[in-house]
Write a structure and sequence with these properties.
The protein is of the alpha/beta class and 254 residues long. The chain has 13 helices and nine strands. The chain starts with a helix and ends with a helix. This is Polysaccharide deacetylase.
């Protein structure tokens, strides 16, 4: 409980550390790119050492904008995946105009289960045709607001997924849905993950990273994927309180 209170309300901003990481990676000769850019064919002669920056925007648009501003200052490209609850088309269009990627952090399986009070994974799977249509409609709405085509998406992990033992990415096991929606990649696709020598995700304090710090990885690994969440880098009292209350209500009503 103390660690949760610290990370949500007391933790000093880690954004200077983030900018220092961007600077160090550049100084060590790493290209820093989005998922979409990484999927393009490598240049003749092969790929230089590369970090793919993936941001899952579970919450906290204020810190998201600060991280983006630091990347712009350092000439870094990255991918930002927004949930329906964190969509900000103004910020997303700024990200796209700069040359980074703004896309969709989808969670239709968990949302459907919670909305219909379903607690059995088999029962949820029987509704996959309807859930796929919901995903396609949400994706079209985001593309319309963004004004550009989305080609990569990222599955969100919700507490309902853990209870059901059913992950949101299972929805995109349907190749027909991918083709219809023009999805080239989901960020947990094995064909993408196998291209990384190391996959790092941020964690709440005191761990901060898993399996190792990106600072320790620089120079040891040529292809790195770094997954970050804005909520892990700066406290936002109002947003964290709103999210905690929402999680409590959803847990009680599901």
């Amino acid at each position: 409980m103390f660690r949760r209170l610290y990370s949500d309300y007391l933790m000093p901003s880690r954004l200077p550390e983030y900018e220092a990481l961007l600077r160090e990676a550049t100084e060590r000769g790493y290209a820093q790119v989005s998922v979409r850019e990484f999927l393009r064919p490598p240049p003749p002669g092969g790929r230089v050492p590369t970090i793919v920056h993936r941001h899952d925007i579970d919450s906290d648009l204020r810190t998201t904008a600060k991280m983006f501003a630091r990347e712009v200052r350092r000439g870094v490209r990255s991918s930002f995946y927004f949930r329906l609850s964190t969509l900000d088309f103004g910020l997303m269009r700024d990200i796209e105009d700069y040359g980074s990627e703004a896309s969709y952090h989808f969670e239709e399986i968990a949302s459907f289960a919670k909305r219909h009070h379903i607690h059995d994974a088999g029962e949820v799977r029987r509704h996959f045709p309807a859930i796929r249509e919901e995903f396609a409609a949400n994706l079209r709405r985001i593309e319309d607001g963004l004004g550009s085509k989305i080609s990569t998406v990222a599955s969100h992990g919700d507490f309902a997924n853990r209870k059901l033992k059913l992950i949101n990415k299972e929805l995109l096991a349907d190749s027909a849905l991918r083709a219809r929606c023009g999805i080239a990649c989901e960020t947990y696709d094995s064909a993408l993950l196998e291209q990384f020598e190391l996959y790092i995700s941020d964690r709440p304090p005191p761990l901060l990273y898993h399996p190792i710090s990106p600072h320790a990885a620089l120079g040891r690994y040529r292809t790195i994927c770094l997954l970050t969440h804005p909520v892990q880098w700066e406290t936002n009292w109002r947003e964290n309180t709103r999210c905690n209350l929402r999680r409590l209500v959803e847990g009680l009503t599901w």
